[in-house]
């Protein structure tokens, strides 16, 4: 998914970068072009980044692009992609393994939330 400005601009896509590029081209071609695009993963965001460059928009001057997942590839573009760090192991532990055994004793996971944060590069 790619969000731009409001729910009325929601575009559903495949999870790959090319789908993010195509969705961003549609959004950025609108008369009421968004100033920011938030995508559901970094690959889509990189596709949005590519679409902006094809349209000769500057990042972050004309458009802000934000991804999710904090993949290493997010730092390979210039300027580096803004991304939301989301731990991959903690949600699985909280969802699938709320109880476990350590040293013969029973323990409970410390909580059901995970630590997320915006990565500024």
Automatic annotation (TrEMBL):
Domain of life: Bacteria
The keyword DNA-binding appears for this protein: yes
Gene Ontology MF, one: DNA binding
Alphabetized InterPro entries for the sequence: LacI/GalR-like_sensor, Peripla_BP_I
Residues covered by the Transcriptional regulator LacI/GalR-like sensor domain: 15-88
Keywords from the UniProt entry: DNA-binding, Transcription, Transcription regulation
Acetylation is among the record's keywords: no
Protein name: DNA-binding LacI/PurR family transcriptional regulator
């Amino acid at each position: 998914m790619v969000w731009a400005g409001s729910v009325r601009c929601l575009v559903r896509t495949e999870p790959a970068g090319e789908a993010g590029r195509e969705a961003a081209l549609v959004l950025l071609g609108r008369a009421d072009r968004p100033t920011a695009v938030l995508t559901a993963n970094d690959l889509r965001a990189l596709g949005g980044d590519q679409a902006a460059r094809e349209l000769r928009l500057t990042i972050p001057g004309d458009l802000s692009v934000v991804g999710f997942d904090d993949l290493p590839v997010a730092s390979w573009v210039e300027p580096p992609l803004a991304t939301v760090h989301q731990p991959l192991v903690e949600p699985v532990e909280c969802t699938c393994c709320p109880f476990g055994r350590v040293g013969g004793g029973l323990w409970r996971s410390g909580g059901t939330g995970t630590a997320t944060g915006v990565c500024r590069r």
